[in-house]
Amino acid sequence: MTLKLFFPGIPFSKQSVRANPVYNRKTGEPVIYKDKLTGKKRVLISFHQPKKVVEQEKSIKAMTAKQIPKNFTPFRGPVIVKELLFVFPPLSTWPKYKLYDLAQGKVFYKDTKPDITDNLCKGLFDAMEGIIYMNDSQICEQGLTRKIYGLKPGIYLTIEGNKEQSNE
Predict the structure, then answer these.
(1) pLDDT band at residue 16, thresholds of 50, 70 and 90?
(2) CB 156 within 8 A of CB 84
(3) H or E segment and range at residue 134
(4) Domain ranges across the chain
(5) Of 38, 60, 91, 166, which is most buried with the most CB atoms under 10 A?
(6) Do 134 and 76 meet the contact criterion of CB atoms below 8 Å apart?
(7) Whole-model pTM over 0.70
């Protein structure tokens, strides 16, 4: 079964988890603990995702749920991402002739941050877990993936899973 999905808006990137030391509220000193394996004293670290990233993932989950068939069950076997297109809005510094070319269908690739595999795909694939597939590790092939500028920003996705293995 093949699904075509569209997520409007500027594509978001998911950076690595943020790590911060935990401080004692009364003294303001870092919280120290004894490592069970080495016996050394270490500073307690708290890990979290920025609130903006968490909210964007929730939004992608909601939009995914609205676009799939009503009695769709997540794919359980291999999943293939046939096409993935990240469309960013044109830069405000672009001249009119470049905007005209864009409107006429000319493709302008985005060769700046965020990078495709590390940040853009990670957030999208994590958000679809449990809805399209059980785990993003099921994605075994990724076809054409592009990052371009366009007049209708968003993420365009064509994904395919095996019907027999998805228990539909």
Answers:
(1) low
(2) yes
(3) none
(4) 2-15+50-166
(5) 60
(6) yes
(7) yes
Q: Which residue type does 106 have? A: K
- Here the tokens at position 100 are 């005209």
Is residue 168 pLDDT above 60, yes or no?
no
| Type of residue at 121 | C
From the candidate CATH numbers 3.30.1330, 3.40.630, 3.10.450, 2.60.40, the one assigned to the domain spanning 2-15+50-166: 3.30.1330
Residues 6+ apart with CB under 8 A from 113: 13, 119
Using alpha carbons only, give the angle 10, 14, 56 rounded to the nearest 5 degrees.
Answer: 50
Largest Cα–Cα distance of the chain, in whole Å?
A: 66
Residue bearing tokens 């007049």:
151
